[in-house]
Design goal:
By secondary structure, this protein is α/β, with parallel strands linked by helices. It has 13 helices and 10 strands. 40% of the residues lie in helices and 15% in strands. The chain has a 7-stranded mixed sheet with strand order 1-7-6-5-4-2-3, with helices on both faces. A 3-stranded antiparallel sheet has the order 8-9-10. Helix 2 packs parallel to helix 10, helix 6 runs parallel beside helix 7 and helix 8 packs across helix 11. The longest helix is centred in the last third of the chain and has 21 residues. Bound molecules: pyridoxal-5'-phosphate. Pyridoxal-5'-phosphate binds next to helix 3.
């Protein structure tokens, strides 16, 4: 063990990114770590990963593996837009609040057109409003709508909602992009297949998150309309997102998808969020800020209560949506959740 204070290693719930690598992904990296293979994606694991995505999604999509979600989102949006286009998103969207302007940067200026939202959900009405707000040459031309599944505050879009969004997009000639950093959690929550929650609902391009769901690094960009994927490989390379030792991004995906770990991990994380939410429900002076449908719970409490919880060593974010965020991962230990619940109950008295 390297010299790290063991207090630093204790399980926390500030982010699902605090967790390490799940056994399946770790083993896959180990299995891929033999011999020499061709670099830059011309290796057997990358082919296997692409085919595993096609099988899971039940369609011949184009697949690209990138390092992180900011790249998956911003490069996908850049490839769908010209610099004079607009991207409709909601006010809580990661592309708007947490990507340091990467979508605008990589698209050379496509403007995010931001809708007010409840729980980070874009609605057909807001798409209609933003798509028709202006039609003159002085305003960016709306080209894409992007939605996050599950949302930044842990809600899921139902199939009905997705179909309505897709219809609104079609009515206005917009493409539909989905930020699926936590797509697996949505599949687990709704009990629906990846196909049912993506292209069958009219999603054109999906960023499928691996990192938050137990991988070391990696998100997949899936183009369901293969024409839209033309030259995306060049875009990845130019943006520094083409892994030279691609097999170590690809091999974990193969095992995650084929073993079902992608869904098991998300199911576990979601269940832990439900467990925590149930535990919180009995505590006075603390309430749940938004419906718990994925792997996150937002708590509303006075600053004093939250300070006391924090002083007991618990980490959490308060900069997202104004409430305290507790996020659960593939490795969440319910004994740690119980310890957190006990401390919250004592601090809230
Ligand atoms: C974490 C996250 C991303 C990706 O973030 P990176 O840190 O760039 O990997 C994208 N969208 C959402 C909704 C996220 O929560």
């Amino acid at each position: 063990m390297m010299d790290v204070d063991s207090a630093e290693l204790v399980q926390q719930f500030a982010s699902d990114n605090y967790a390490g690598i799940c056994p399946e992904a770790w083993q896959a990296m180990e299995s891929a770590n033999h011999g020499h293979v061709t670099s830059y994606g011309d290796d057997p694991w990358t082919t296997l990963a692409s085919n595993a995505f096609r099988k899971l999604f039940e369609t011949e999509c184009e697949v690209f593996l990138v390092f992180n979600g900011t790249a998956a989102n911003s490069l996908a949006l850049a490839s769908l837009c010209q610099s004079y286009h607009g991207v409709i998103c909601c006010d809580q969207a990661h592309v708007e609040t947490d990507e340091c302007g990467a979508p605008e940067f990589f698209s050379n200026g496509s403007k995010l057109l931001v809708a007010q939202s409840v729980h980070g959900k874009l609605t057909p009405a807001s798409i209609h409003e933003l798509a028709t707000k202006r039609s003159d040459i002085h305003y960016p031309k709306p080209r894409v709508a992007t939605i996050t599944q599950s949302t930044e505050t842990g809600q899921v879009y139902t199939v009905k909602e997705l179909q309505a969004i897709s219809a609104a997009c079609k009515a206005h000639g917009l493409l539909l992009h989905m930020d699926g950093a936590r797509f697996a959690n949505a599949c687990a929550s709704l009990g629906l297949t990846p196909a049912e929650l993506s292209w069958k609902c009219g999603v054109d391009v999906l960023g499928f998150g691996g990192t938050k769901n137990g991988m070391a690094v990696g998100e997949a960009v899936l183009f369901f309309d293969r024409v839209l994927a033309v030259d995306f490989d060049y875009r990845c390379k130019q943006a520094g997102q083409l892994a030279s030792k691609m097999r170590f991004l690809a091999a974990p995906w193969v095992v995650m998808l084929e073993s079902g770990a992608w869904l098991r991990n998300a199911t576990h994380a979601n269940k832990c969020a439900q467990y925590f939410a149930k535990g919180v429900a009995g505590i006075p002076n603390v309430s749940i800020a938004s419906p718990v449908e994925a792997n996150v719970v937002f708590l509303t409490a006075t600053g004093d209560i939250l300070d006391r919880v924090n002083k007991r060593g618990w980490k959490f974010y308060t900069f997202i949506g104004g409430a305290a965020r507790f996020m659960f991962a593939w490795d969440t230990d319910l004994a740690r959740v119980d310890a957190l619940l006990r401390d919250i109950a004592e601090c809230a008295r």
